[in-house]
Amino acid sequence: MKIDKVRDLTLVDIEKNKTMVIACDSSGSIGMKEGDVFKVPTAIVGKFALRVALMEVLASGAEVISITNAVCNEMEPTGREIIKGIEEELHQAGISSVALNGSTEENFKTSSTGIGITVVGIANNSLRVNNVKEEAMVVSIGIPKVGGEINLNKKDEDIADYSDLYKLLAHNEVYEIVPVGSKGVLYEGELLAKNNDMELTLVEDIYIDLHKTCGPATVLIAALSEDAYEELKLMKRMKLIGKLKLKG
């Protein structure tokens, strides 16, 4: 059995042309408990904790089959609200059939909210990881936001969403998609280039902060052909940030 680690993904070859894709994320001190540093409704914690790992697995081209939530709090009411948020995020992602399992802390009283999420998917001949075979355009979708910058009361039109992700996945010449988290756009862009043995050249007049944390995957970056870029460049929130070029 071959096991690889690429970015935040674990890739397990389970049989010919079939790969298990695993991603995880955690959240701590965010919620409505006394010790939480950032106060938000508990269901929101579940939504955004899931969002990061879920986007990672979906962006790889895998179909999600299992989600595990390790809630470091009691089931009632904290765990129940976190699960509610997870189910809302799955609905937003258009996922209706998935194995959802988890655990809660029932032995000790907790003073802050904590959760760990693991998402598992299966890719069949469609893995878009280290998949850039030729020079490509690099685009970003969304604006870097974190914490209270994100509009939690309604859909935030500034950040990348699942419709953006699925539109990119539907195009054969979108070679690779990377959800951007706390390390920022430039870090993920340079890692994308390195993993594909290429160099990233930035364009002029980039209007987003390339170094700022993107929190719960508020930005996607993608490597795509020039033809695909011409077809997709009118997508809302899409900006050209650079090009991947062969070394040398």
Automatic annotation (TrEMBL):
Species in which this protein is naturally found: Clostridium malenominatum
Upper lineage: Bacteria, Bacillati, Bacillota, Clostridia, Eubacteriales
Superkingdom, taxonomy of origin: Bacteria
Record domain PurM-like N-terminal: where: 9-122
The protein's name in its UniProt record: PurM-like N-terminal domain-containing protein
InterPro entries: PurM-like_N, PurM-like_N_sf
